[in-house]
Amino acid sequence: MSRAVNPGPRNVIDSAMTDPSQEPAPNTTPPKELVVVNATGRQASSVVRVASAVGYKVRAQLRSLKKDLQLTAELKILPNVTLLEGSLDDQTFVDKLFVGAQYAFVNTTPYAWTDEVATGKSLALAALKAGIRHYIFSSLTDHSTHDPPQGSLPLWATKFTVEQYIRQLGLPSTFVYVGSYHNNFSTRPYPLWQLTPRADGGFVWKAPFPTDYPIPFIDTEHDLGAAVIQIFKDGVKRWGGQRIPLAFEVLTPLQVCSAFSRGLGRPVNYQPHPLEIRTPIPPGYRDQLEGVVRVLCEQRAPYFRPEMEGSATEIARALWPGWRGMEEYAREVWPIEEKANGASWIASGVATPASEMDGEN
What we know:
Elements: E1 33-36, H1 42-53, E2 57-62, H2 69-76, E3 81-85, H3 91-97, E4 103-106, H4 116-130, E5 134-139, H5 154-169, E6 173-178, E7 180-181, E8 195-197, E9 203-207, E10 215-218, H6 220-234, H7 236-239, E11 243-246, E12 249-251, H8 253-264, E13 268-272, H9 285-298, H10 314-319, H11 326-332, H12 334-340
Parallel strand pairs: 1-2, 1-4, 2-3, 4-5, 5-6, 6-11, 7-10, 9-13
Antiparallel strand pairs: 8-9, 10-12
């Protein structure tokens, strides 16, 4: 999937206010050094961009400099960013990765070439040995640990296992639980999130979610990095050991379609529908998708842990007031990403004004 550049945050965190009549004193404080792994991922690249913008020295690890060339080139030219090519399965590389740094943001990935739990434990132990002062790990819940147990989503449960290990280590840590990405939506035939073009210029979203199921959302590339950097600024005294839900809106499928309708100026409707898998998917992902149907859709288990549901947007919005909602994303960003992916509907331009649209949404 080709990736369009998502416009970054609209304002810089804590812009310095100075008296123009005074010469600023030279800054002799060495820059804070941050390690970010899997740097071309949606979450990690957002953190790299914002950290660079506010003066962090960033070590951005990626598995290969020859993949995702557009994003790699973008990150390479950011100030104070050093790209480090290396495998997280290479223990020698991992042992050196954090040495001399003070902060780390880690989002492990369930790729076929790695054991996510082993990788997560290896990174945490190396960070502890290197004396990392604040380690932010992107985690998710294991629904089998809820009371009562509600089954399990295998690709989320691995992250929860790593979280428990980090807690046992005593590493100064915070755990962010990230909502569903805005850019999950695509006209490509991806399971759960496809918006299918219609002959009238509109779209239909067919998925197994109940019409009133609350889904937490985040524009990951625009908003996650700013929130994470604010957590680092607040420090472990404020956020040590805590789970922070990073979602700026909680929307039902009907509300999502309404936001897309207003943003695009086209009718967008939701249709409850059994899970369809019409494209090749990575090994193990079918189990995850079937778990989503069973645990979230049928049992209506919460997306985050039960104790986090009430504060799903409150904390995130306090961390980063400049967040972008679904309607704005649909209007300003989604068409750009669709054009980059070669979507044919783009050629027809914007169709029906929102005021003239019919239908439930």
